Amino acid sequence: MHTNESSSVQEYLQSQIRTIPDWPHKGILFRDITTLFENPEAWRKTVDVMVQRYEKQAFDRIGALDARGFLLGSTLAYILNKPLILFRKKGKLPGKTISVEYDLEYGKAILEMHEDTILPGEKVLLMDDLIATGGTLLAADQLIQKAGASTLEAAAIINLPDLKGADRLNAAGIPTYALCNFEGE
């Protein structure tokens, strides 16, 4: 897991993310990134660090995960002049899609993308708001592989190392990057 470009930027961004205890369930510490969007300086620093990391890397598309991943993914796609792929929950995309079923903490879900959105051999940068268990990012990687392409890296604003998602992604051969690590669930 790669993290932070500089500890001062990481510390600043981490200080701007609100923690809400016992939401959505008792015992959960919810890391609320909406505070980054409400603070232009914090959002600019978030985007700038990601742009600096990826502007010189070779990849073809940015894949953004439903729903908060859309915010960072679309911003980077615009700045880096890359096509944007949307990975959505079942039934949310019009037209022909390909899908994969994946495990949730309590059950299963289906992730979809348009079937013609990635060309074989392309490299895709995945973007989400946070890496928790890694399940949704692993499902997105499976869809990318179904299309004959590969994942450059799975990037997020937050990594929750106690939930081992980055470890699962790394074990599957997917490099990970996060701006901030938050201990605890």
UniProtKB/TrEMBL annotation:
Gene3D superfamilies: 3.40.50.2020. GO terms for biological process: adenine salvage; AMP salvage; purine ribonucleoside salvage. It comes from the Bacteria. The keyword Acyltransferase does not apply. It is found in: Cytoplasm. GO terms for cellular component: cytosol. GO terms for molecular function: adenine phosphoribosyltransferase activity. Belongs to the purine/pyrimidine phosphoribosyltransferase family. This is Adenine phosphoribosyltransferase.
